[in-house]
Amino acid sequence: MNWRNACCAGMLVILCQHTHGASADRSEVAEIRADRVTIDQQQQVSRYFGHVEFSQGSVWMTGDEVILATRDGELRLIDIRGTPATYREIDDAGQQMRARAEEIFYDTDAGLIRLQGNAHLCRGGEYFRSAYIEYNTQTRAVNAGKPGATESERVRITLRPGNTPSPTDCEDMP
Q1: Mean pLDDT (the chain, rounded)
Q2: In whole angstroms, what is the distance from residue 140 CA to residue 84 CA?
């Protein structure tokens, strides 16, 4: 196995341990597909370019560029950029969360996903649209919008009736 394959395999193992989908997802095989990759072992950063797709169990990410940063052998940051960048997962309770934006920044230590630029977040029966959305994967809290937002940047929320939305509620997310 050459050093590039070893680094890619190592990054996949690290990523597998730190995504926050269902617990069973962590034991699933992970796969990253991209047109090309660059790996900087010294800086502990790998960059994937061109039609990037990541899948592991219920976790799925896509973008034009994905940057993974590690520290001490553990994944710390995921930066997904695209037109659009997308992220989706199903948690242990069976609730689906889908996100779409121009940039998705995931701080795995804090459990925070930040969506910037034409951001959309759907979870269960709630659908948020704004220029900026922050989602805490640990507490499931949402923080959206910004002070002084223009009309197009204002937060828009759609709430669907029903007590227990199914995992497919986000399927119609535009």
Answers
A1: 80
A2: 23
